[in-house]
Amino acid sequence: MSHLLSCHSLKRQQGDRVLLSVDQLVLELGQTYLLTGANGAGKTTLLRALAGLDSARCANFEFEGVQRSLSPYPRKLHRRIGFVHHHPILFSTSVVANITFGLHATGASRPEAAQRADAAITWAGIRPLVDTPPQALSAGEKQRVALARVHAMDPVLYLLDEPTANLDENGRDLVTRLIDAISKEGRTLLIACHDRELLNLSGVTRLNMTAGRLEVAS
Amino acid sequence: MQLIETTQEALRLLFVGDSELWQIVWISLKISIGALLLVTPLAIVAGYLLATQRFPGRRILVVVVQALFAFPTVVVGLLLYMLLSRHGPLGSLQLLFTQTAMVIGQMLIAAPILIAFTLSAVQGADARVRETAIVLGAGRVRTALSVLREVRFGVMAAVFNGFGRVISEVGCALMVGGNIAGMTRNMPTAIALETTKGEFAQGVALGIVLMTLALSVNFAMSWAQGAGDQRR
Ligand SMILES: Nc1ncnc2c1ncn2[C@@H]1O[C@H](COP(=O)(O)OP(=O)(O)OP(=O)(O)O)[C@@H](O)[C@H]1O
Ligand SMILES: [Mg+2]
Q1: From the CA of A19, which ligand is nearest?
Q2: Which ligand is located closest to the Cα atom of residue A15?
Q3: In this predicted structure, what is the pLDDT of residue B195?
Q4: Domains of chain B, start order
């Protein structure tokens, strides 16, 4: 297996407080990682740093075999690394416009964007939702539209922050199936979640965080 | 009774289509809408940058904008008059007592309102909107447009508010416009000056137009704010 991402001494500080202090993080291509830890352990902080939303220092950040800086974050990394918020937000346009947003932003032509959005809609099983105003969707439906939106971009690494939080059993099932499909496509996933909501996925690696530090669990 | 006669005469002027009266209305609208068209894009950019960028002096700028909010328009007129008067720094442009000078004055009056409203609308926007645009690969401009789109009702309320203020503003229009008939005489200056010369009916007629406009603008503003709140 080859490294998709590796970095050493990843740190984020806010004033005197150390929010994140990870000695080493290595993600292998095609692997799924579950990131667990208590409230406030730093799971969201780690995902946001890797997504380029919060600045963090890092001694040696390598992605797809290329040496990169983490802050300033290179814009083209957004094409390769997808991030979905804990409680994702949809633009108040339309479901389709949400899904084509990233495609237009990264320079896809109109027909190409339309075609890829259509494929993502089928993939996520959200065809019945396309005429509903995004604000009116339920939490589980929003989560699936958000997954379709990031899937349309076809990133190599997915960073998902508690994708099944606050969903009922059925909603959790639907989302878990989508995550499983992403993993079967050979993509890499780093998913923050709580122990009680552990996703029912096979062959995952668990990473545990405590107070901003990372340890590999069994 | 004189009041009834005056009102009757005012209504006659309005509905018969008195050309002098409607010319004044037209000049007013032209100047105010023109000023807003020119200043709105700049003010929205300024408000957005003040809300999203962190740079030294930002807090001071925000305080200055809020202070300008409460600036008496006649003082704006005074400053502009001194700049544009023949011996002022911009005297060579010969803009004093022109529609252009009035447009500039109204831009200056509307700008702080528009900037402050946009600033608070953008600050009130959910941070995830901006972050989502960024992680989906949007550049600065596309990110800004998607945030502004989410708060468009707040921005629209800002524009209506600015219009309501400049359309009825008399101090600056009088100082830098000069109430020249057919040129710089707009509704507020006509009401303020011509009434004292005995043009009661015209004053009342213009008053009715102005009130109607102000009410519509207020109505549009509360509609925009209501529509914005409903989406939360
Ligand atoms: N901007 C900030 N300033 C100060 N502290 C912060 C900031 N952002 C995050 N923190 C702190 O960092 C710690 C880690 O937060 P984080 O959101 O990453 O936790 P988490 O593991 O995702 O928790 P949860 O399970 O509740 O989602 C928390 O104690 C939080 O208070
Ligand atoms: Mg979290």
Answers
A1: 1
A2: 1
A3: 85
A4: 2-231 (1.10.3720.10)
Ligand 1 centre distance from Cα of residue A17 (Å)? 11
Give me the interface pTM, i.e. the ipTM: 0.94
Q: Could you tell me if B58 lies within 8 Å of chain A, comparing CB atoms?
A: no
Nearest to B34 by CA among B107, B113, B114: B107
How many beta-carbon pairs below 8 A join chains A and B?
55
Helix (H) or strand (E) holding A14: strand A3-14
Q: What pLDDT was estimated at residue A133?
A: 95
Q: Quick one: pLDDT at residue B194?
A: 84
Q: pLDDT tens digits, residue range A48-100? A: 999 999 988 888 899 998 999 888 899 999 999 999 999 999 999 999 999 99
Interval between CA B52 and ligand 1 midpoint (Å):
22
> Under 8 Å CB-to-CB from B49, ≥6 apart: which residues?
none
Looking at the CA of residue A192, tell me the nearest atom of ligand 1: 22
Residues 6+ apart with CB under 8 A from B33: B163
Percent of chain A with pLDDT over 90: 68
Measure A44 CA to ligand 1 centroid, in angstroms.
7
**Predicted pLDDT at B22:** 92
Mutate to test the pocket of ligand 1, among A20, A35, A45 (most ligand atoms within 8 A of CB): A45
Range of the domain at A169: 3-216
Q: Are strands A157-161 and A3-14 parallel, antiparallel or unpaired?
A: unpaired
User: Would you say A178 and A6 are in contact if contact means Cβ atoms under 8 Å apart?
Assistant: no
Domain count, chain A: 1
At position A11, the amino acid (one-letter code) is K
Could you tell me the CATH number of the domain that includes residue A12? 3.40.50.300
